[in-house]
Design a protein that fits this description.
The structure holds two protein chains of two kinds. Chain A is an alpha+beta fold. Chain A contains two helices and six strands; from the N terminus they run βαββββαβ. Chain A has one domain. In chain A, strands 1-5-4-3-2-6 form a six-stranded mixed β-sheet, sandwiched between helices. In chain B, helix 1 crosses helix 5. Chain B starts with a strand and ends with a strand. Classes of the chains: A alpha+beta, B alpha+beta. At the A-B interface, strand 1 and helix 1 of A face strand 3, helix 1 and helix 2 of B.
């Protein structure tokens, strides 16, 4: 990827704070489990974008893994910017899953338009 | 996207509030403030360095932060200090890691975070010719490494 990956910093919420802490780990160690093409107009025009769903297994038994969805913007030369816009870790009442299979099942049920990878 | 630099920025992490000399953000066209992965990585590494450089025992929050950053499970930690697999859970309940184990783990985590970088620096140093080049490399490396050591403020 030519550009970089962002997460929203403010308005500040604890979920976004944890997402910022985990962003690098999620990118470096996570695996793609789903992908969907979206048809929305970007801020800078009608550029294509994809949603990429990434899963990272928990470190310890009984904990939840990390589930993040990135919006990846591309131009004719390929992807140039990504933003983490959904992040679930099972903490503070947020959804969370202990296994990839559970995460996949939730994705399948709630986002049937995503193609499983 | 507009880049912003905020001075003396305070950020809660690993059970403390850290003050960074500079934090880099981006503002998008909707006015939202974003942070790039390079900056989150720099912050995590700076805090890891600060935690591992103190003489204090590791708190439970610091221990969890370092485990997460280094992708190290409780089972891996227990093996490292030759303890029962349930021992790290007991530390977390107690709120601190014992002194001896803290020392061992701080060295282990620091090596995990910075080991590759030190190895690359070492290889570069071996390849360099001439004292001037070495001196410049050393100066640049030191300036880069210690330019923004965060100050630990108060408990978060």
């Amino acid at each position: 990827m030519k550009g970089t990956v962002f997460v929203q910093h403010k308005p500040f919420t604890e979920a976004y704070e944890r997402a910022a802490e985990e962003l690098d780990t999620l990118i470096m160690h996570g695996e793609e489990i789903g992908r969907g093409e979206i048809h929305e107009h970007g801020d800078d025009g009608a550029l294509p974008a994809s949603h990429v769903v990434v899963w990272l297994a928990p470190l310890n038994a009984g904990e939840c893994g990390l589930y993040g969805v990135f919006k990846v913007r591309s131009d004719e030369d390929g992807p140039y910017q990504a933003e983490l816009f959904a992040f679930y870790d099972g903490k503070q009442g947020r959804p969370g899953w202990q296994s990839r299979e559970e995460a996949r099942a939730w994705m399948r049920e709630n986002y049937p338009e995503y193609v499983e990878v | 996207m507009e880049e912003l630099i905020e001075k003396n920025y305070k950020l809660p992490l690993a059970g403390h509030v850290w003050e960074f000399n500079e934090m880099r953000f981006h503002r998008d066209q909707k006015g939202r403030l974003l942070i790039a992965v390079e900056e989150t990585k720099r912050i995590n590494r700076s805090v890891a360095n600060a935690i591992c450089s103190t003489d204090e025992v590791l708190s439970a929050d610091e221990f969890v932060f370092l485990c997460r950053l280094c992708r190290t499970s409780n089972a891996d930690v227990a093996k490292r200090v030759k303890a029962d697999p349930s021992t790290p859970t007991k530390w977390m309940k107690r709120g601190t890691v014992p002194a001896l184990e803290s020392e061992v783990l701080k060295k282990f985590f620091w090596q995990r975070v910075f080991g590759d970088e030190i190895e690359k620096d070492s290889q570069r140093t071996q390849r360099a010719d001439g004292a001037d080049e070495l001196a410049q490399m050393g100066k640049t490396a030191i300036e880069k490494k210690w330019a923004d050591v965060p100050k630990r403020d108060t408990a978060a």
